[in-house]
Amino acid sequence: MRSSFTALTWIVLLATAGYQRVAADDPSFRNTVYLIRNGETNTKEFGSGLTQTGILRSQCLPSVFGPNTAQTVGYILAEPPLKRKSNVSDAVDTVIPLAESLRIPIDISCGHDDKDCVAEALSTFAVKNSTASMLVVWDSDLLPDIAEALGASDVNDWPKGRHDLIWTIQKNKIRSRASEACPGLDNVVPV
Length: 191
Ligand SMILES: *[C@@H]1O[C@H](CO)[C@@H](O)[C@H](O)[C@H]1NC(C)=O
Ligand SMILES: *[C@@H]1O[C@H](CO)[C@@H](O)[C@H](O)[C@H]1NC(C)=O
Prior knowledge:
Phosphoglycerate mutase family protein, disordered N terminus, signal, Rossmann fold, seven-stranded mixed sheet, 6 helices, alpha/beta, binds 2-acetamido-2-deoxy-beta-D-glucopyranose
C-alpha cells in the first residue's frame, strides 16, 4: 500500500483564493460527468479509511475510467480530506490509483457540502476542454445534490450500501445508473 505522503504528492490544490467562479444554475456544457461514491470504508462515517474492499475498488477504477477505456476522464474532482483528520481521505484515496494511471491531479478545492462549487468547477474545466469527460467522487449524501446542481431534477437518494454505482450525467440529465462492475467485487445486476 502507498504511504499517505506519496498520496499527497498527487494532490494538487487548485488555487481558488481571490478567484470567483461564474455562477452556473444549469450548466450548459456537453461533457459527460460521472458521479461515484468513495470506496467502502471501515464505518458508515465518512473519513474512517478504506477497507480492503475499498482499496481493491480504488485499484479497479483505472480499468473503468483510466487510459484506453470507454469512459476515460480528463478531470477528477474529489471531496477534500476531513480537516480534523487530514490524513483520512476516503474520496481522495478512492481515486489515487486512477489519477496516477491518467497522470492528472485530483482537484480537492471544493468544500464538503458545496455542490455549487462542484458544478462551477466542472463548468470551468469544460470551458478549457469541451470534450473530456469528468469524474466526481464524493460522499453519497451530497451526490444527489450535485446531480441537481448539474441540472437533473427530483433526484432520489444514492442507494444505500452501493459503492459501485456510476451515475452518468449528460446535458443536465442522469442518463444511466450502472455498476463499476469491478471483477471479484460487483455482481453485475441492473439497478
Ligand atoms: C482534452 O482532454 C482529452 C482527454 O483527456 C485530451 O486528450 C485532449 O488533449 C484535451 N484537449 C485539450 C485542448 O486540452
Ligand atoms: C493519521 O493521523 C493520526 C493522528 O495524527 C494517526 O494516529 C494515524 O495513525 C494516522 N493514520 C495514518 C494511516 O497515517
